[in-house]
Each structure stands twice: as structure tokens, then as C-alpha cells.
Amino acid sequence: MNIKPLLVASGLIAATALAGCSTVGGTFYTASYASVTDAGYKLPAIPKTKVPSQYLRQIVKYETSEAPGTVIVDTSAKFLYFIMPDGKAMRYGIGVGKQGFEWSGTARIAMKREWPTWTPPAAMIRRRPELAQYRGGMKPGLQNPLGARALYLFRGGHDTGYRLHGTPEWWSIGKAMSSGCIRLLNQDIMDLYNRVDIGAKVIVK
């Protein structure tokens, strides 16, 4: 996907008209949260008016020494940034790990999966025995906890067990509710999935 045209300040109005985007209070909103059919699944529309506006997908100014294509996750602010050229980033609202399940560090995206299978880890099954039925994996679908897409985080060649993934629980964005993984609105993880490359650096802080 070629995202460079979005970065040209003089072209924002034209890009907005073409993409059906809007500018509110000086913030450039790029997100469409309408219902979408993907791989035979019909994702419901996100009720944008019920999601705090700061958590909607948008292009923001973001100065960093990290290279474009890097993902930076700010767990305290509940934002994920996909670094773009020229001091900009695509920002997404996220849900993060609840107390005791937080994770931070630097990793790489080793795998990308569309409509992934979810397999609860053994520790989660011990906490919630009712999940034992999914020990062999929960099939993809609208209620799957990984949502429409998943990006798998590895460090030192080993799976960290953590993911950047979608969620059907749009109301959890901006909150600390997960078991450590970083969750995005399904429409947002689909957008990020199309932008980020295998091997991309991910910084979670």
C-alpha cells in the first residue's frame, strides 16, 4: 500500500475528498468503521460515537528516531503508532493487559495471519477451566478473541506469546482488559496489517 500521498500537507484536502475522510478540530481522521465483508465474514460497523475520539484511527505528528515501518505501543496512553515518513504516524486506539498481565519490550513481527485460530495458553486454561474446550484451537470467526487479523511478536527467534490483534469487543479499546496482548478494533487491525511488514520492529512501553 502506498501511503506517501497522505503525508503531503498540501494534498490533505484532496486526499480527504477521495478517501471519504474528515478533518475535525485540526485532526486528520482516516478511519471508516462501516460494516465490511472480508473472507466471507461480515464485520459489524463500529459505533464511532461511542468510542472516544482520541482512539479513532488518525494521522498525527510523531517525532521519533525510529525508522518508518516501526510500531510503537504506548500502553499508558492506550495508543499504537505506525511510524510514517516526515514526522508522522498512523495512530490507533488500543486495549492493553490488565494489572498483572502487562508486557513491555522490543520484538519483531514474525508472522501475520488473517482470521487466525485462537489457542488459549495453558496458564489461561488453568485460570478459566471453561476454555479447555479450545485447547486445540478456536476456529476463526466473528467471536474469536483474535478478531480479523493477528500479528505475532517474536524476540530472539522465540515466540513471546503476545500478539497485536483485532477484537470484537470495541468497547474495550482504551481500557486495560486483556491478558497481555494488544487489541485493536477489527477495522483498525486490518488497516495496520496492510501497512506493516514481516520483520518490523515493535516497541512496547
Automatic annotation (TrEMBL):
Q: Which PANTHER family match?
A: L,D-TRANSPEPTIDASE, L,D-TRANSPEPTIDASE ERFK_SRFK-RELATED
Q: Which GO terms describe its cellular component?
A: extracellular region
Q: What is this protein called?
A: L,D-transpeptidase
* GO terms, molecular function: glycosyltransferase activity; peptidoglycan L,D-transpeptidase activity
Family that this chain belongs to: Belongs to the YkuD family.
Q: Which UniProt keywords apply?
A: Cell shape, Cell wall biogenesis/degradation, Glycosyltransferase, Hydrolase, Peptidoglycan synthesis, Signal, Transferase
Q: Does the keyword Hydrolase apply?
A: yes
What Gene Ontology biological process does one annotation of this record name? peptidoglycan-protein cross-linking
- Which positions are catalytic residues? 165 (proton donor/acceptor), 181 (nucleophile)
Pathway(s) this gene product operates in, as recorded in its UniProt entry = Cell wall biogenesis; peptidoglycan biosynthesis
The signal sequence is: 1-19
Identify the InterPro entries for this entry.
LD-transpeptidase (IPR050979), LD_TPept_cat_dom (IPR005490), Transpep_catalytic_dom (IPR038063)
> Domain named L,D-TPase catalytic: which ranges?
69-205
